Amino acid sequence: MTKTGTLSTGNSILTENNKIFAQDVIKGLSTSPKQIPSVYFYDEKGSALFETICELPEYYPTRTETQILRHHGRDIVQHFPSKLQIIELGSGSSVKTRILLESFLNEHGSARYVPIDVSASILNQSARELENRYNELTVQPVTARYEQGVAQSILHDGTHNLLLWLGSSIGNFTRTEAVEFLNTIRGMSGANASFLIGIDLRKERTLLEKAYNDAQGVTAAFNLNLLERMNRELLADFDLSAFRHLSKYDEEKGRVEMHLVSQKKQTVHFDVPGFTVHFEEGESIHTENSYKYNINEIEDMAYQTGLILKQQWLDPQKWFSLNLFIPK
């Protein structure tokens, strides 16, 4: 993404991207309850921490989704033609995706892969590694948010576009937002497209809460890195030791929530003219939701977006699902 302009704020110069970050932070911290969009977790450090989280024993989603891809990869690729473009939303290091790419290459001999991510460094590193490893794979990385990346990438020349969205990242959207987002992407993609989406399933509270509060404290560091990012990019003065990581499962809403909880009464200053934010002791910043679904909720989401759930693959414990949606 190109930098199209700058904004002077006190002693700092904000790029156009950081100007949007600042606007979202000011808006989110001015609401009650306070909140910041989870997309801002993924600066270079945050992206690296998330890759570490994916390898933790408590974080079952990566393990179970990988198991599904390995066990069902050959079956999955049978649903797609050889003239195919795979567009992945939030690709990161593309570790799990390699399992699927290898299945496509074994079946069709070649493939075109378009990874989309907001972290340019991890995206470009992954693209180089994939091109060096697979001669028959064409990789075209796009550094952008999802909608912008999809709009740039969709082909309308008879190529089938497979929109790949792994890791249950759809769970970061509310159920209404997920429907709205899929409607938007479906509208961009046209009739010659399908969607392969990893969706985490509802399950026992203890298992869910451990997955978002690991014993090594990596998830806590990932959450607290959001404060570090605001300190670094927006010249805020958050005291990280004055906040603690909290994860909790709301069974009624079917979501795990992550918060940063203020340990004392305090005021934080930003190098943005006139902007300060006050915290009471125990007050939190809501930083992420991770919605979990049951099978009926997945089918209902498909119905609301004009899609059909054509095929679904599960791990043996039925903790996680990989879902193939096609237009009606």
Features:
8-stranded mixed beta sheet; 328 residues; disordered N terminus; 10 helices; Rossmann fold; 2 domains
Please give the CATH architecture of the largest domain.
3-Layer(aba) Sandwich
- What is the count of β-strands? 16
Compute the number of helices: 10
The fraction of residues in strands falls at 25-35%
Q: CATH homologous superfamily of the largest domain, by name? A: Vaccinia Virus protein VP39
Low-pLDDT residue spans: 1-12
- Termini separation comes to 34 Å
Spatial extent as radius of gyration: 20 Å
The largest pleated sheet is described as:
8 strands, mixed
Q: Tell me the overall shape.
A: globular
Helix content: 25-40%
Count of discrete structural domains: 2
Averaged pLDDT: 92
The CATH C-level class name of the largest domain: Alpha Beta
Write a brief caption for the model.
With 328 residues, the protein is α/β, with parallel strands linked by helices.
